[in-house]
Each structure stands twice: as structure tokens, then as C-alpha cells.
Design brief:
2 copies of one chain form a homodimer.
Chain A lengths: L4 H6 L4 H14 L5 E2 L9 H23 L9 H15 L8 E4 L2 H11 L2 E2 L5 E6 L18 E3 L3 E7 L2 E8 L2 H9 L3 E7 L11 H13 L4 E4 L22 E6 L11 E4 L2 H15 L5 H10 L7 H27 L5 E4 L6 E6 L6 H10 L2 E2 L1 E2 L13 H5 E5 L4 H24 L3
Parallel strand pairs in A: 1-14, 4-5, 4-8, 7-12, 8-9, 9-10
Antiparallel strand pairs in A: 2-11, 3-4, 6-7, 10-11, 12-13, 13-16, 15-16
Helix pairs in contact in A: 3-9, 4-9, 10-13
């Protein structure tokens, strides 16, 4: 049996597959004490209680009603209406269900969008996805049906303080580089996540506005991935505006609110983009799964107590902010005196650690940590569109999740500290 | 905003999209009295009761356990083990979880498989999917990421009797044609559905064995789609054997057992094929949905009363057989004296009607029926790999579902009969 080129491309070991394999390994092997890799959200009792209430309210008979029929390929009609109303309440966008499509998870939406807006074009042109700031989500890297089509801008790095303390930094978009890449003429869309997975960076409203204007001037879409951000799960610690324009494509997800395995991505965009996504849903999987519509709809139908809006703002966000602070304190304590720098924690469920001058690559550190029972994700995965082979910064960074409980974070951070110190020490021993 | 070639290809109006749009139209427009299009299964109380019991047994707390974590990209580990045990009990295949992957519905599996085993190959070769017998499932037609890659063999048509009555026919594989197509040298895989959607044909064990031997001799896989067949939902009215060999890829689905909107496809194949599907799952959607694993697992863990095996054989199959017979009787009664021929009803949930010499195309008949409140699917959609523009047979056939209740079948069949008679009558009036 011989695989096609498509088969060879997609059966390679990708970053996303590595991540999912690590999740399965952590769950099944018994060898991992601290799972700080992956993007599994925390289990938050108050949020689970709300979803459990929805499960009970739906009931067994309601379950049968929902699962007995396919939804349309755009998604469950009532859910689309509830979502349109929800977004209009929050942002006054004036959208209708024609502006919304459901996908089998947000990753699935990015497979669609990147292939819709890059790769081969009629007339022999090839277009690229422009990532205006890397590091950026590794799951983007391998979704193209043929070869990767990315151009990316390395960020400017700004030293920052967090809670009055130094040792932090923030990425800023290098707009001169972004404009240079756009002017090169083969960009099909601009894409960024907000907050950014992996760094926890939140692009400012000014940065988004400038990207939007640039995209409009090139007649290309601006895709913004809000999987960790507003309005749900709302894991961002600085206030932001969400804007919608005809050339904006906004992606949302129920995963990080606590429903990862119901696989529910939500795309808000112009109707012609939604029509293309519906068509892709039909051809690739007939229709998206429908149960999440029934489970999440009651929580999206209002914004009061027990709504997803209220839970996001008053439960989920403070939960993660407290855990981020816990992890930061522990890291700085364990690695006091070492050149640890942490990206300004502005959102998402990860800390992005930068070990400047680390004598080993974080790929090696990842392997050592895995052997010691702690999983993280090495930094170099997060630079789609960049050749990182000579890029020190990429290999000095790693992503760790802080979604685990405090005991697990203690174990994992203690391992990280021990092996990082060891690496720096070995580097000193071998220094000329 | 400009779409890529991929975007243009996948945003076309495909057969699958038409079908899904019709489902949504039927559900939402209030204009359709008889939905005999689409592939939505019937709601069977005894089966729903079993799934409802599983829902209740899982409970709200169990629900949280399931949805709170991604499964691995191959699927829920416990579900894979249950499925391996299930298949080994039925067929003694000796498989392990490494032989099984879960996809977001069976359609999704075919998107993967057809792109894995046809299209562009290294070295500049292009390979095709060989459909040894068309008509074949329309959802196959548009899944290739670039252009369709099919070769197909028209069937031999054999007059048959059903319950002692003439007016029936059965498709048989034209093996001379199949061998000619294989010898042409660019076939990447052979694929068939069993029972066949749309015709209800069930390929015989001898036909499958011969296809398997041919596939083996060309070192290509034989893909068999059991979405409507053994072992669940078991909607086939003639006994069949299921064989597994290293070059077989068998596809199953929970949809037609009553869970269409949980989107659960199951692929059984050699571990290297399963690894490729897992990798595709990871890249395209991280992981398949997990809830169906929790709902269906209890019904697959044994074969006694209330198991999916028992329900398939003793409830689902007789249910559809009775409904097929009801629809057949009604059709023959309403169209007595007209040249209606029905494909031998051997399984699946459809009747395949052939109106020989019909003066209008069934595309036109479909439009007329839709305007009159009845949905069916015109035949020409079901001939991937065949140029049907000059093919009378394709345009004389249509597919109607018999999954609806008797009252709905009465309405729909009455409409079909009225408009078919009208068409024949007009043809006579205009005859020279």
C-alpha cells in the first residue's frame, strides 16, 4: 500500500500530533507526574456545575431529540441564532446566523481557513498566511493540504514589569517587518491568536486596528483566534475590544470553557466565508457535532448568573489569573539567581519561559523533563514560517500550562528548575 | 477577499452539500411534508431507550469526566479497546486498538482515505479511486483536495424477483471492466459500500472476495464502507461475511444506529493506516469527539439483550425491512402499469427507483417534487467517475429514503407517483 503525497505529508510527526500523543501518554502511561504540556483546560467546579445542570436539564429524552438528526452543515440552527444574539448583546455587531458557522473544534476551522486563504491560487500564484507575531500556535503549522504557506514576523521584545517586579518581557509586533512582508505581495490572509498561544501575549487594540487597516488595504482577511479570550472563556487579564468588519474572521471555541472533547469551534465572518465553511463541513464531515449546541445554548442565552459570560468573567478568568500568579511566584523562587524571564502573563493558560543563554536547546530540555515525569512543550514548535535552526531565542523558550492544580505545578516547576539549573551549571563547567 | 483553488473547489455546490441543505430546508422551511431525501435514520423507540439508559447511567458527573479532557487523536482509549473486543467477538479478527481509529463521522474517514490513497503521488504519478460498481455514495464524489480522482465501472443489470414478484433488478459488478480499469495502472484503492448507498445492493461474499484478491494483486487497499451494514446498524437483509486482511480498510459508523449528530466514524485497518488517520485527526481537529464513546461503549461491551449487536439484529434490521416492504407495496400499487423498477432491496435505508424511458430527467423530477413538498435525491449524483451527461440510466433513477413513518411515506410516494405519471403522460402527448 502506497500513500499519496497528501498521505506522506499528513502522516508526518507534527507538533500538534506530538502534543496529542503526549496528552495520551500522560493519561495512559503512568509515567507522568506533571502534565504541563497540552492545552487541556482546568476543571473548575462552578463551571462544571453549570454544564452538568444543562446535561440534567436536557435529560435522556432531550438527548435523543438532539442526537437523532443531523444538523445542517453550518451547524444547529437554534444554536446559530443563540450565538448571533449573544454576540450582538456583547458587541452590538448586528450579525445574523448567516455570519456564523460551527466546526468540529477550532483546529478544524483553521484547517479550513488557511487552505481557503493561502496555497495555490488561480493563475499560478501562491499565497501565504502572514503571522504578524511569532511565536504563534503550533497547531497552525501543518494544516495546509500541500506544503506550509507561512510568512512570519519576529517580534520586538520589550522588558516589562509584572506586579512591580522585573524579569518579564512582552512581544510587540514589528510593523515595519509586517509591512515589508505584505508589500512582497503574496499574502492571502493575516492571522493571530489573542491571547496568543503560547506566549500569553494579548495584542493591543491599537495593534489589532493597525493589522485590520493593513489587511483591508490589501483586500485580505484578518483572522483572529479568540479560543482563550473574549468573550468565553475570557482568559485575558487586560481589557480588550473585539471589532468585527467585513474582512474580519473571528474564531471562538467552547473547548477552554471546559468542553474540549465536545469539539466545538465557532467562526464569525462575512456570509461568503461562512458559506465556504458550511460547504467544507458538508464535504469533509456532513455536519458538525450537535450535542454541544444543546449543552452550551442555555449558558449563552443570557448573561446573568450561571451564564457563560458571567462564569467567564467572574470564575474562569480569576481562576487562571490566580494560578498564573502562583506558578510565577514558584518559578521565580525556584530559579532565583538564574536568567529566567517570563512573558508578561496577559492571558491564555500558559506561561512562556525564556531561559536566555541556556546551554541546551529546549527540545533537549523537553526530553529530559519527560524522562523525569514532567511534560512541557519546547519553544521551537511555535515559529511557523521561521527557520529556527539558527534561532537561539526559539530554542531558549518553552511553554508550560498552568491549568493543573497547585500540587502538580509544584512537582512540574520543581523538575523544570532542577533540570534548568543543571543545564546552566553544565554550561559553566564546560565554558572555556 | 480571494479564495484559493482549494477554496473555489470546496465552496462549490456539491451533492453532499445539496443533501445537507435539503435536510436543513426540510427541517426549517415548513415547506416539506415528506422528507425522503437525506440519510437521516429513523427514530426507533427500543434503540433510543438503550441510548437514553446510557445517557442516564453516565449522569451529569460522568459527563463532566468525559468532556473535560481531549482524547488522544486516535480516539478514546477505552472505546478503542471495547471496539477491538467487540469485533474480535463477532469475527475473530484478533485485532488490537492499534487497528482502530475514530473519526468525526464516517464521511470524515472517507475524506482522509481517498486523499491518502489517490491524487498526486511522488514521482509525478496520479492515482484514482476505483469504484467497482456505480451508482455509489454521492458523498465520496467531492472529497479530494484538488480534483476528483475516480474511475468507475458501470454495473451489469440483472432482472430479479422480490417476494415472488417481478419488477425488480440487481446490479452486479462487471469484473471484466474492473480488471480493465485496474490494468490501466493508476488505481490507488478500490472502494465500495456494503450495503450500497444508494441502491441497497449488497455485494456478495464472492464479489468481495474477488475484489480483495484483485486489490491484493495490485498491492492496493480494498476499502469497504459498512455504514449501513454489519455489525451495526445491521440493515442488510441477506447474510454476509465480513473479512479482514492486511490490505482491507473497513469503515463503520454509529450514525445509522441512531446517533447521527454525535458524528462517530470507526475505521478498522492495518496499524500504518490507523497511524495516518490519527495524524490527520490531530492536524485537522486535534481529536475526535469523545461523548459517543461514553454513550455507545456500554452497548458494545456485550452482545446480550440491549446490546448494539442484539438491537441491530432483532430491532433495527426488522424495522427497516418492514418499512422497505411497506414502501415497495405502496409504490407498486400507486404506479401499477407504469415502468417502475426497484433495485432489489437488500439493505440500507433507501429504495433505488428506476423509471425506464422517463421523458424528464430525475433532476427535473426532483425539482418538481421539492416544489410539491417531497424531497428525494436525483440519481445522477451517484455516479462519481462516470460522465452521466449522456447516461439515460443515471437520469432515470432516484433515491428515496424509507426511514420516515408510514404516513410520511404515503404522502411522499403519492407525490412521486403523481409526478412520474404526469411526466410519462406528457411524454406520450409529445410523442411523434
Amino acid at each position: 500500500m502506497k500513500f499519496s503525497q497528501f498521505g506522506h505529508k499528513f502522516s508526518q510527526k507534527t507538533g500538534a500530533l506530538q502534543l496529542m500523543d503526549d496528552l495520551a501518554y500522560a493519561a495512559g502511561s503512568g509515567q507522568i507526574q506533571a502534565m504541563l504540556g497540552g492545552g487541556n483546560p482546568a476543571r473548575i467546579p462552578e463551571v462544571e456545575a453549570a454544564y452538568q445542570q444543562a446535561y440534567s436539564d436536557l435529560g435522556a429524552a432531550g438527548f435523543s431529540e438532539v442526537v437523532a438528526s443531523y444538523s445542517g452543515s453550518q451547524g444547529d440552527a437554534a444554536f446559530l441564532q443563540t450565538l448571533a444574539d449573544f454576540f450582538n448583546r456583547q458587541y452590538d455587531w448586528g450579525i445574523t446566523p448567516a455570519h456564523i458557522a460551527i466546526t468540529n473544534g477550532s483546529q478544524n476551522a483553521f484547517f479550513y481557513l488557511f487552505n481557503l486563504f493561502s496555497g495555490a491560487y488561480e493563475g499560478g500564484q501562491t499565497r501565504q498566511i502572514l503571522l504578524p507575531l511569532v511565536p504563534e500556535y503550533l497547531g497552525y503549522a501543518d494544516v495546509h493540504v500541500d506544503a506550509p504557506h507561512f510568512v512570519a514576523a519576529r517580534p520586538q521584545i520589550e522588558a516589562t514589569q509584572y506586579r512591580g517586579q522585573a524579569g518579564f518581557f512582552k512581544y510587540r509586533i514589528d510593523f515595519a517587518e509586517v509591512e515589508r512582508l505584505l508589500a512582497a505581495g503574496d499574502v492571502g490572509a493575516i492571522c493571530c491568536s489573542r491571547p496568543t498561544n503560547p506566549s500569553g501575549n494579548v495584542l493591543t487594540d491599537a495593534e489589532i486596528a493597525r493589522l485590520s487597516a493593513l489587511a483591508a488595504s490589501y483586500d485580505i482577511p484578518l483572522i483572529v483566534d479568540y479560543a482563550y479570550g473574549e468573550p468565553f472563556p475570557g482568559i485575558q487579564f487586560t481589557p480588550v475590544q473585539l471589532s468585527l468588519a467585513p474582512h474580519h474572521i473571528l474564531c471562538f471555541s467552547l473547548s477552554k470553557t471546559g468542553l474540549p472533547s465536545l469539539r466545538t469551534g465557532i467562526v464569525v465572518a462575512a456570509p461568503e466565508v461562512i458559506a465556504a465553511i458550511s460547504a467544507l463541513n458538508a464535504t469533509l464531515s456532513l455536519a458538525p457535532g450537535r450535542l454541544s449546541a444543546a449543552i452550551a445554548r442555555p449558558l449563552l442565552a443570557h448573561d446573568g448568573k450561571g451564564s457563560l459570560r458571567q462564569l467567564s468573567q467572574e470564575v474562569i478568568r480569576p481562576f487562571y489569573q490566580a494560578r498564573a500568579d502562583f506558578a510565577i511566584d514558584l518559578l521565580r523562587q525556584e530559579l532565583a539567581g538564574y536568567p529566567l524571564r517570563i512573558h508578561q502573563p496577559e492571558g491564555a493558560i500558559f506561561l512562556w519561559l525564556w531561559f536566555e543563554g541556556l546551554p541546551i536547546s529546549t527540545n533537549t530540555l523537553y526530553e529530559e523533563l519527560k524522562a523525569a515525569g514532567t511534560l512541557v512543550v519546547p519553544g521551537a514548535y511555535y515559529f511557523p514560517g521561521i527557520d529556527t535552526s539558527q534561532d537561539r531565542h526559539a530554542h531558549e523558550c518553552l511553554r508550560m500550562s498552568y491549568a493543573q492544580d497547585e500540587a502538580t505545578l509544584r512537582i512540574g516547576i520543581s523538575s523544570i528548575a532542577r533540570l534548568v539549573k543543571q543545564a546552566y551549571q553544565k554550561g559553566k563547567d564546560h565554558a572555556p
